[in-house]
Specification:
The complex is a heterodimer of chains A (269) and B (238).
Chain A (H helix, E strand, L loop, with lengths): L1 H16 L1 H34 L9 H4 L4 H25 L1 H9 L2 H6 L4 H21 L3 H9 L10 H26 L5 H21 L7 H8 L1 H9 L6 H24 L3
Helix pairs in contact in A: 1-7, 2-4, 2-7, 4-7, 4-9, 4-10, 5-9, 7-9, 7-13, 9-10, 9-12, 9-13, 10-11
Chain B lengths: L1 E12 L2 E12 L3 E5 L6 H8 L7 E6 L2 E2 L4 H6 L1 E4 L11 H11 L4 H15 L14 H13 L5 E5 L7 H13 L5 E6 L2 H7 L2 E6 L2 E7 H5 L5 H9 L3
Parallel strand pairs in B: 3-8, 3-9, 6-7, 7-8
Antiparallel strand pairs in B: 1-2, 1-4, 4-5, 9-10
Classes of the chains: A mainly alpha (269), B alpha/beta (238).
């Protein structure tokens, strides 16, 4: 146990003492802020239209309906954007996990100290989880701002259940991306290759959903099931759904297992 | 008691035979020079002894523990300096040594003293708070040796510990290794014969994956100044 945490601690130190994580944090904060401000603009506009039309909200097209409240109009939409952003940033965080050990020749150190390979994998993955949680953690500031300065005709400005379930979906997706990235990082010495391949895998996974409607059954159902946003749809909207936890949990477990096999296998070449 | 026992140790990389049925044993407390031309199989043997790499065939035991059947027990007794010191450039020397001490499972209360001990031993005390990435080659090597010494392993395996050092650093590192005599069994590989002559008691010469000499220093040199060179050149000729 202690060795696992020693590795986790070292991973987090490495992340936070090199510029990469800070670049990612800054990028994340900047892009999400832009989206947040834009969403607030649309929200305001929708409310102005609603108050100028006789009959109010009921007369507006469905596109506008989502903007009736801050939770659905701003936060849920923002979460969907962050979901896509995670796809872009996670590979940059996960790429160094094993690739760098090989380039620094420190992999030999890890493999010759009295620890088991699964401790290395778990320690590193916990570090990866820590850093992706920090990255996504930045975005929780937006609902907090809304809760502080927003107001509503009925009760609190935000529906926290919905907000937090959506946030849970984000973390789940981030954790999955880091697991995939870690496995790919264990296959190569080049961080750039690791980042690129991880990104490609996640991108294809995202695009599956857009192929699904054109496919025939039974492929359509299979593809729809496998697509990540299909899995996360309910959670993002604030409906508690346990299936994605099982689905992504299995993907994470599989990736950890593959990473373990991969670092074991490298010693045999 | 034999610290290292190797029987018929063989390693093939696809078709290329790196080491071919090695047999040797090393007694406790010795400083052993592991010599051979570049590419003779020195690093491969060391990687197998430290449990980094499995052999294709044969057995290796460290302090009585089979490196592959009982890897954790064997690894607890080995301090290893690979060819390139395995440093994390973003950690300070102190942070790095602490990390390795934790990996080796040293009791938390002992880590601080142990760190001080190896830092004094390797002369890196003034550099403890520098980032390992900014150290000179000589200091990187010393930190690598300090890392191997953590936890006082019975066996130290040093792969070319003086490679790339200037003459002064080289002498310092050799003095350091000499000072470990008695406390540790040391196996060091190098292709610089003068170094071996200065500090080793037993010499193993490996050529093209085979042991061509395994004897005490006195027997190999035969009392002559150039004895080791002559023997080396004669044994590693085509």
């Amino acid at each position: 146990m202690r060795t696992i945490f020693a590795i986790t601690k070292k991973e987090l130190t490495s992340y936070l003492t090199t510029p990469w994580a800070w670049v990612v944090f800054t990028g994340m904060a900047f892009v999400t802020s832009v989206f947040f401000v834009a969403l607030l603009g649309s929200f305001k506009q929708a409310h102005e239209v609603a108050s100028s039309v006789p009959g109010g909200w009921s007369q507006l097209p469905p596109d506008y309906q989502a903007f009736r409240n801050l939770t659905d109009g701003v936060v849920v939409t923002l979460w969907s954007t962050v979901l896509v952003l995670t796809l872009f940033v996670a590979p940059f965080l996960s790429m160094r996990l094993f690739a760098e050990e090989r380039r620094n020749k420190t992999f030999e150190l890890l493999m010759t100290t009295p620890i088991r390979p699964f401790e290395i994998v778990l320690g590193k993955y916990l570090g990866a989880l820590g850093i992706i949680t920090c990255t996504l953690g930045i975005t929780i500031v937006f609902p907090l701002i809304l809760a502080l300065i927003g107001n509503s005709e009925s009760g609190s400005a935000l529906e926290w259940n919905t907000v937090l379930l959506g946030y849970g979906a984000l973390l789940l997706w981030g954790a999955t991306n880091m697991a995939i990235g870690m496995f790919i990082s264990s296959l190569t010495e080049s961080q750039m290759v690791a980042a690129f391949v991880s990104f490609a895998v996640a991108l294809v996974w995202m695009l599956i959903r857009s192929i699904a409607p054109n496919a025939d059954e039974p492929f359509r159902s299979v593809l729809a099931y496998l697509s990540f946003d299909g899995q996360l749809q309910n959670l993002i909207k604030g409906v508690l759904d346990l299936r994605p936890f099982v689905f992504f949990g299995s993907v994470i477990a599989l990736c950890l297992l593959l990473t373990h096999r991969s670092i074991e296998a490298q010693r045999w070449t | 008691m034999a610290m290292i026992e190797v029987e018929n140790l063989t390693k093939k990389y696809r078709d290329r035979v790196a080491i071919d049925a090695l047999n040797f044993s090393i007694k406790e407390g010795q400083i052993v020079g592991f010599l051979g031309p570049n590419g003779a199989g020195k690093s491969t043997t060391m990687k197998i002894l430290t449990g980094f790499m499995p052999p294709t065939a044969g057995k290796a035991r460290v302090a009585g523990f089979d490196v592959f059947e009982n890897p954790l027990e064997a690894k607890r007794r080995i301090g290893y300096l690979p060819e390139t010191p395995p440093l994390y450039p973003e950690l300070t020397v102190r942070g790095y040594l602490k990390f390795v001490a934790e990996l080796k499972g040293l009791p938390r209360a002992k880590i601080k003293d142990e760190l001080q001990r190896v830092a004094v031993g390797t002369g890196i005390v003034p550099e403890l708070d520098r980032l390992t990435g900014t150290l000179s080659k000589g200091y990187r090597q010393r930190v690598g040796i300090a890392q191997a010494m953590l936890g006082e392993p019975a066996l130290l395996i040093l792969d070319e510990p003086t490679e790339g050092l200037d003459p002064r650093q080289r002498r310092e590192v050799l003095e350091l290794i000499k000072s470990l005599k008695g406390k540790h069994t040391v196996v060091l590989s190098t292709h610089i014969l003068a170094e071996v002559k200065a500090i080793c008691e037993q010499v193993l010469i490996i050529h093209r994956g085979k042991i061509v000499a395994d004897d005490t220093m006195a027997n190999i040199t035969g009392g002559k100044d150039t004895g080791l060179e002559d023997k080396f050149i004669q044994l590693t000729a085509e």
